Fold:
Amino acid sequence: MTATDERKWSYMPIGIFADPDLSPRDLQVMGVICCSTNKHGICYRSQVKIARFLRIGRTTVVRAIQRLMKSGWLERRGGKRRDGGNCSFVYRVVNKDIPVPDQADLFEPDLEEEAQNLEEKRYKNGQSLSAQTDTYKNELLITIDDEDAAASRANEGRSDVPSQAQVQAAKRFKHYVNEVVTTLARLKPGLDVTRMADGTNPIMGWFAKGCDLEQDVKPALAIVLERARVVPNSLNYFTKAVFSAMSSRKELSEINPNYKSFGAHAAEKRARELAASRARCDAALDELNVEYAARGAL
Structure:
């Protein structure tokens, strides 16, 4: 696979999972938008296609987008062509976890003009306008080259060089995701995470919540898969168990600061203690054998 064939998508902002004003459906809509954005965070996804992908009504998508915009996680431009007709909106994911200067200039005028020109070309090619009043009912026809061209103009003159802390956080999250996927493949061969609903987005919620990989996530995955009657179709199937494991661990840690859950580190500690105990027992038995041998010689 070449670099041009790779799918471009952006991570959901970690802080969005802690926003109390958003519902799980809002997070699903945000996840679809993030899966459709390019490396600059620009998305041309139509509301109709988002609703079709999630198998929900378009009104639900509109309300979710409005809540995301109200909370400051999403910005929207467009919706009208020069001739007054309706067209698709242009979205931009706002990552409030990473402070970026000049947030008010996320959309440049030429980016909105580019979106309007594309909609006019579609209309001239024979596509009819939607009966809806606030959206243009069309498929995703914009190529990645078009997205990159528009986004490069929108971000011209900006330098978004990640800091060392951001790079390290991205590496930790990547390792976190890889460990979860590997654990699921080991516990349930044939379970394809990429084909699950929401993909790996729930893992980001576990990571942002502070769930420990060895003490919370892996034990919860093993227990849930062992008791599951059907094959899970989403990683959200494990979320409640993972959060419960984390809460139990923290409560026990408050009662006993020396408490360690049944994770890998705890298992290593127990193995070392068991080996030391066996060594002490063997040494005591050797001393007794020597003592009995000495008495027998007398």
